[in-house]
């Protein structure tokens, strides 16, 4: 047996080795293709990206031709670098750096030397291309924006980096990829599939014919067109209203969860991030550390929601039967909820029931309702967890699953939160009562506020907010058609809606109404603190407003947040009214509100804590497009660059927003929420 075993093993190993060699050398052409890199030139055929339309099929983003100069480093020989650099308006140092970078990627494979030439640059280089061995022109398409708004919605296109190439083999050096907005969320659909051609070359590096008669060639597949839920006219109007202000506007169609507008302010013209000037323009936007035009406040900014949160406080209390419509509180312009603790209130005082409590925004009423909800349970921790569960059923304290690549969860405290804050225990409802009025440990993003309004408008349910309406040749994700039902029963919403309706009739938003539209809303004001050079400083309050309309069969839910905007009715309220009328009537009758909002500015408020040399003025940031034309954004430079800045010349106070989240009781004592 031993005599047979060894020869058998040797024979089997030899046989399998020969079979494998035969397969690799005769049958499988892929390795042969790789081994022939010296004799084969790879050409990519880049497809057009899919077009982007709004909900009414208005074209928002198309494509324009662009030309990249490609280089194969090993083929670059005996060229006049002086003439080459002059032709393309680059320095010799730029030339050497780009060649070195391309050689690191691969001396034999093509990579982008100079991207995104315009038509005139392309024509000049094409005329003399024969003189520059190793360089050739590759045509591709860049975005062509048909509108000058919606930059945060669209995102932008940029070159892939090494990390992306290593992660996804589809991308090669110099390829473009979508970043932020729908360009990133729907990159796979929009990019299409690039085609590949393999060309045989002779020893003089001249193209001869297709390799294997095109057996391995593939055809480019154009990207799919997508249709957004955005109303382009409403989006443009919202951005105009927010000029010279900071904050966000989110509008949602309640019955579908479709996002009608997503405004962040300040913003910028999306076309400035296209072409040769893209990198310089992006750097200017990125380094504006105060206005933060690249920061989508509608999705990322976490604010104390203030008085609009009282709506949820009331709904949770009704569901827990801690109160009913007839429960009353006597408000003495506030109420004492513990020894030495007094919650101030700006309502007219007296006997307050639910209906009046909503339209006059009575702190005493909702503070009492919240404490009754928590105190219903033997242990405060149990009460807080039940309350927290109700809040999360409205989409709070979590990523809601919308189809945009960025977002924040906000914050809804649980018993674990207070066990961490009070490790020795002993806390009760009186210590956390500021949650009742949207302060304390509660934080929400504007899109969560808008979704909360959608739940109230629907009397108890919502669909995940989304920005995609349809995809060419495909269906949108089924999760956007799934109904989410809140833990609060349907019957408890109508008294809340009635109270919100009277906010406009004789409450905190009196005078902001529109004839012919029944709007249900809620004003809000939230205190705003920041650390400036290490010190906690009280800044001007944020202005907040939430609403939906019409009262019956609602078609739009809105949340508006204006940073440092004083009180809810001053800035956020009028903007909300105008957005609702614009969507429902397609025109504006409240010309008084429109004029005040379009011409109004909060620059002075934002400048208060900056040295005079860094304050924003009427001069806007000028950014250059690929064709050399200038675009002026509606933001202001936070820091004006100097030629040779000294440490003192560019010194700006360190401003860090501070949340009152770890100082709940003191927040109430200091009156943190106003109508």
Give an account of the 3D structure:
Strands 11, 12, 20, 21, 22, 25 and 26 form a seven-stranded antiparallel beta sheet that branches. With 675 residues, this protein is an alpha+beta fold. Helix 10 (232-241) packs antiparallel against helix 20 (572-585), helix 13 packs parallel to helix 15 (363-375) and helix 14 packs across helix 19.
In short:
The chain is of the alpha+beta class and 675 residues long.
Can you tell me the residue ranges where pLDDT is under 50 for at least 5 consecutive residues?
A: 617-655, 665-672
Q: Counting H and I runs of at least 4 residues, what is the number of helices?
A: 23
The biggest beta sheet reads: 7 strands, antiparallel
Share of helical residues: 25-40%
Overall 3D geometry? Answer: elongated
> DSSP strand (E) fraction?
15-25%
Average pLDDT number = 84
Rg, Å, rounded: 31 Å
Helix-strand makeup class: alpha+beta
Task: Give the number of DSSP strands.
Answer: 26
State the end-to-end CA separation. Answer: 96 Å
Secondary-structure topology with pairs:
Elements: H1 2-27, H2 30-35, E1 40-45, E2 52-53, E3 59-71, H3 81-88, H4 92-105, E4 111-117, H5 119-128, E5 135-145, H6 151-154, E6 156-159, H7 162-167, E7 176-179, H8 181-185, H9 187-191, E8 195-201, E9 207-210, E10 226-228, H10 232-241, E11 247-253, E12 258-265, H11 278-286, H12 297-300, H13 310-319, E13 329-331, E14 334-338, E15 341-344, E16 350-352, H14 354-360, H15 363-375, H16 380-392, H17 415-421, H18 446-457, E17 461-463, E18 468-471, E19 483-485, H19 493-506, E20 520-532, E21 535-549, E22 556-562, H20 572-585, H21 591-599, H22 603-607, E23 622-624, E24 630-632, E25 655-658, H23 664-669, E26 673-674
Parallel strand pairs: 2-10
Antiparallel strand pairs: 1-8, 2-3, 3-4, 3-5, 6-7, 8-9, 10-18, 11-12, 11-22, 13-16, 14-15, 17-19, 20-21, 20-25, 20-26, 21-22, 23-24
